[in-house]
Amino acid sequence: MSDTRRRVKVYTLNEDRQWDDRGTGHVSSTFVERLKGISLLVRAESDGSLLLESKISPNTAYQKQQDTLIVWSEADNYDLALSFQEKAGCDEIWEKICQVQGKDPALDITQDPIDESEEERFEEIPETSHLVELPPCELSRLEEIADLVTSVLSSPIRREKLALALMSEGYIKKLLGLFRVCEDLDNREGLHHLYEIVRGVLFLNKAALFEVMFSDDCIMDVVGCLEYDPALVQPKRHREFLTKTAKFKEVIPITDSELRQKIHQTYRVQYIQDIILPTPSVFEENFLSTLTSFIFFNKVEIVSMLQEDEKFLTEVFAQLTDEATEDSKRRELVNFVKEFCAFSQTLQPQNRDAFFKTLANLGILPALEIVMGMDDLQVRAAATDIFSYLVEFSPSMVREFVMQEPQQTDDDVLLINVVIKQMICDSDPELGGAVQLMGLLRTLIDPENMLASTNKTEKTEFLSFFYKYCMHVLTAPLLANTHDKNSKDLQEGSTKINLVCPDNFQTAQLLALILELLTFCVEHHTYHIKTYIMNKDLLRRVLVLMNSKHTFLALCALRFMRRIIGLKDEYYNRYIIKGNLFEPVINALLDNGTRYNLLNSAIIELFEFIKVEDIKSLIAHIIDNFYKALESIEYVQTFKGLKGRYEQEKDRQSQRLNRYRRDARSLDEDEELWFNDDEDDEDGEAVEKCRMEDDFSDSYGKYMEAKKGAANGANGANNNGKAAVIPPASPAVTPNNSSTSSVKTVALPATPVVKTALVGLVDYPDDEDEEEEEEEEEQSQRKRPRLSS
C-alpha cells in the first residue's frame, strides 16, 4: 500500500528550462549518516538503484504545487521536482520536510530563516523605507541588477520587497532609458542583461508595476527589451510587427480616446503573454497570474465601454444589414462583432446576460440571417462563430426569434434553414464548419434545454415548426443520394436494392452527420420523428446506405435502425416487418463474410438486443424469413437463441390453442347434459301441474302466499347464484364433473319453483305482465351456463 502511495517520478530542469524525466521509483525520508541529516531517497522501481539522495536543508526553499508536486533548488542551476502518483504520499513527504525545517505543513512554500528575520523587520520598518537596496541604475551595474532580480524570484517575501523598491524609486523608467542607450550603442551584453531584468520584473507579478510598464510611453521599450533573448543568435523584431504589420482597424470610428488606448494596450499585452514570453516552467506557473488578470479586466472594461456607447453599436448593425455596404466593409464588421462576443466571455454571468440582450435588441439575429447567406467564406465562418455564442448563451432566445419570423412561401430564408444549407454546402473537405453547425442544431432541437416552467408550449410549438418548415431541408441530401434509379417511388415491401449509394467521401461524411442528427431525433422527439419516418418511408432510404463502401456510413445507418428498435415501439416494429427492412441488414452481414470487424459486431448486437428483450413480433419475422440464411452462423449463439425464443413462443401458442379446443369439447358435453336435464325438468313439471290443479280450490289468500314465496325463491337464485339458497332439486341434476356441476347447480333447481308459480297464474289476466317478467327470468337462468362455460 505504501509503495503505491509513495511512487514518484524524479525530474531535473535542463539548460533549456525543460524538465527531464530521470526515472520512476519510491521515495522515503531517512537519516543518512554520510550527509549527517534527514534526506529524501528515491530508489528505482525497476532495479532498486538510487535515483535521488537529497538532504533536507533548513535553508532550502521547498514548494508544493498542484497537491502532487514538490519542487526545490539544490544549486544555482540544479532544480529538482518529485511528482507523486497519489496526493497522500505527497502530503506525507511534505510534512516531513516541514518538520525538519520547523514550518507549518499548511503552507505551500517553506522559507529560509533569513526570510523570516526579514519578514519581522518588514513589520517594524515604515512603509517608506527601502526594503531592498537597489544598485544605481547605470550601464556598468546592469549585471548586478540582473542577478538581484533573478535571485529574489524563489522567495515571495523578497519579491514583494523588490517590487516596492522598484515602484518607489521610479526605477522602471530609468532602466528603459538605459535600454535606449544600449540599443544606440549596440551593446549586446547590456541588452541581454536588460532582457533578464525585464523578464524578472514581469515575474514579480505585481499589477502596480504592470501599470507602469504597459503605459503608452513604456510598453514598446518593454517589448524591445524582450527582443534580446540571450538564447537567440539574432534578436526578434516584435516592435516592427506591432507598429507596421499589425493594423488597428476601426470599422466605425471610435471617438473615445480612453477606449482606443485601452484596446491598443490590451492587444499589446496579450501579444507579450502569448508570443514573446516563453511557456512558464513548473516553478513559474503562478508568476504571470496577475498578467492574465490584467488582460482579463481590460477586456471587461472594453466590453462595458462599447456596450454603453449606444450610437456606436447601432451604427455597426445598421451598416451590417445595409445592402449598400461593401463586402470588405461587411467582413470587417462581422469580424468586429465576433471579437466583441469573444471578449464578452470574460464578463460575469449577470453582465453577460445584459450584453447578449443588448445585442438581441439591436438585431443581431436578423443580421446573422443575412450574413450567413453570403458567398464570402470568411464572413460565413465569422457569422457561424457569432451564432454559436448566441446558441450557447440562450437557445430559447434563438428559437423564439425563429418562430416569430414571417412564414413566407420560400422556407429557405428562415434562419435555421440558412444554417442547415450552410452545413450541407460546407466546402471544407473535413467538414469542420458542418460539424460545428450540426452541434448547434442539436442544441436548438434538444428538448432538454427547452423551458418547461416559463413556457410550457415551447417544446411542442418549436418541434412542430421544425418538422414542418425545416426537416425536409435537412433530409434533402439523404433522400437525393438514396433515390431509386428505376422509379420515383419505392414499392412498399420491395426487397430489391436499385438505389444510388454515394461513394464520394465528402458526401458520405455529410450523410453521416445528418444521420447522427436524425438518430438524436429518434431518441428525443418520439412522436414527431415517428410520423416523419412513416410518411417518408425514411428507414428504407437510410438502409440503402448499408451498401456504402464507407463502413462509417453503413454503421451510421445501422445505428439509426438500432435506436428505432431500441425504443421497443410496436408501431415501428410493424413498419419494419411490413417493409421487410431487415433484408439490407442481413445482406450486409452475409456480404461481410467471416471478417471480424465493427460492422459485424454491431449487426450481431442488434439481433442480440432483439433476443434479450424478447421482441416477439420481430423474432417471428426474422426466423420466418431469414433463418435459413442465418443458421450457418455459429460463432455466436445469437441466431440459435432467436430460434429457441421462436420455438418457445410457438409451443406457448400451441398449448393455448389446445386448451381452447379442450374447453370447446367440454362445452359440447355440458350442452348435451343440459338438454337431458331439461327433459327431466319437464317430467317434474307435469307432476307438479296435476298437484296444483287439485289444490286450485284453496283460498285466494293461500295462493298469494305461495306466489310470494316462489318469487322470493327465484330472486334468491338470481342474486346469489348459490345452490344453498335454492330449494332442493331432483337427484338427477348432480353430475360428478366438478367444473360442470358448479354451473348447473346454480341455475337448474330454480326451474320447477318458477314454473309452479306460472301454472297457477294461467287463468288470471290481471297478472299477465308478471308472467312475462318471470318467463324472462327463467330464460336468463337457462342461458347463463352457456355464457359461463
Distance between the termini: 75 Å
Uncertain ranges: 112-130, 485-499, 685-700, 713-768, 776-789
Based on secondary structure, the structural category is: alpha+beta
DSSP strand count:
7
* Tertiary shape: flat
Give the DSSP E fraction (strand runs of 2 or more residues): 5-15%
Q: How much helix is in the residues?
A: 55-70%
Tally the helices: what do you get?
35
As laid out across the biggest beta sheet, the strand order is 4-3-2-1-7-6-5
What Rg do the Cα atoms give? 46 Å
Mean pLDDT: 78
Largest sheet: 7 strands, antiparallel
Polypeptide structure, described:
- The protein is flat, with a radius of gyration of 46 Å.
- The protein is about 65% helix and about 5% strand.
- It is α+β, with helices and mostly antiparallel strands and about 800 residues long.
- The protein has 35 helices and seven strands.
- Helix 4 packs parallel to helix 7, helix 13 crosses helix 14 (about 325-345) and helix 19 (about 415-425) packs antiparallel against helix 20.
- A seven-stranded antiparallel beta sheet has the order 4-3-2-1-7-6-5.
- The model is unreliable at about 110-130, about 485-500, about 685-700, about 715-770 and about 775-789 (pLDDT under 50).
- Strand 2 (about 20-30) and strand 3 (about 35-45) form a beta hairpin.
- Among the domains are: about 5-100, PH-domain like (Roll); about 130-280, no CATH class; about 570-655, no CATH class.
- The longest helix has about 55 residues, at about 640-695.
